[in-house]
Amino acid sequence: MPAYSPGFRSLDAEHDDLSLDVDGEIPAWLSGSLVRNGPGKFEVGGRRVEHWFDGLAMLHKFRFDGGDVAYSNRFLRTETYRRAVEEGTIASQFATSGSYLDQLKSFLGDPTDNANVNVARVGGDYLALTETPRRVRFDPETLAVRGDLPADDVPGHHVTAHFQRDDRRGETVGYATEFGRTNRYRIYRVPDDPPGPGAGAERVPVASLEVERPAYLHSFALTRRYAVLVEPPFVVNPMRFLLPGSGGFIDNYRWRPERGTRFLVFDRESGELAAERRTAPFFFFHTVNAFDAEGHVVVDLVAYEDADIVENLFMSSVEGEAGRPDSGPELDAAEGELARFRVPVEEGTGTTVERRDRYTGTELPRVAPGARMDRYRFAYGQATAREGQNGLVKVNVETGEATEWWAEGHYAGEPIFVPNPDDAAVPEDRGVVLAPALDTESEQSLLVVLDGETFEELARAQVPHHIPFGFHGEFFPEVVS
Ligand code: CO
Question: Is the predicted pLDDT of residue 25 greater than 70, yes or no?
């Protein structure tokens, strides 16, 4: 068993506002709640889910107040959770297949609501999100489920759990892939000011594009002018979904490097496809940031040579069991490259996409909220290039200069930057970086607080048990109880 295996162990305990021991000093200005999402339970009816992405959703909340921190966690009590716990029924998900009937249902309007990937605030709603079109509302105070947002006019079967916020326009942007007789990518926006009463999170179509072989898309890029879908050649023939024995969702995708990776640049105003540029193949999950520059869009993302990373995150691989071709403790082998792509869009800028690699060995990238869609300097992410631990890194994306944080035997998760509201003049790194970490020696987790500017550790808050490795979270300054 690899040392990080507690990161893939189920957690049964739930807490409500448990005061945590703090070593060091958390800045007194830090007020609000970090809410994180991820799998909390990996066994259903005596069977283990097949992929890290398929565990039952659990929300974790760290509430900061005057230098203190309180911890709450709760399973997302959805229909999928209820069926799993009461009936021992496993839902068809990312890589775990339920029954054939279940598989069919997941494309005929009853997809799983096990929303374990991310959280977001859209309008007045706090949402737990995954890649099925379910949008599960939760109460940010109690972490209790409040039911789904209703379906609307934007069809789609595979959606993003990574919305992009545009504070200037006052809207949230997302996309969905629709499978059918024709397949389409659809970009939509959710205006902050809804057109009518009760129209809280209504999605408005922005653009769409027909595609023969849709790609697996996890996140996208937004600039002030454009929405950019980055399409790696990890594609599906959607007819496969309907074949018996086709496995989980992702098992149907194939790596086709000869297609290259496409940048699809849509004008946010007109909805037109402003540019389509092809470059050498790469795979990615996460964009970092993007902005407009001299007729180009600049897109920063974490690139992989191919889609093997998906295979490497199967439970059999992360636990180092035999049975899969690439079995072995592969978690340390994930070498994401923070890369900058300069994509020509406007006339006279050519067709060649330039790539510049900035930092090797990172994932779960974030930027300061105030740095989005502008030329910026700093990205924060996991540092994954050492064996036996995951650190954190602050990368200067202009120069490639990197400052890292490591602690022996600790596996850190997604770092989230919170700006100091009293220091708004230079918002990009004046604040703190919050990240969960698993200490493999004590088999307990903690929350690390780093200074955004120096990247030095200010404090750590001790959780009385392990927290399974999770995905994404958000800091909500307004959630103070
Ligand atoms: Co993600």
Answer: yes
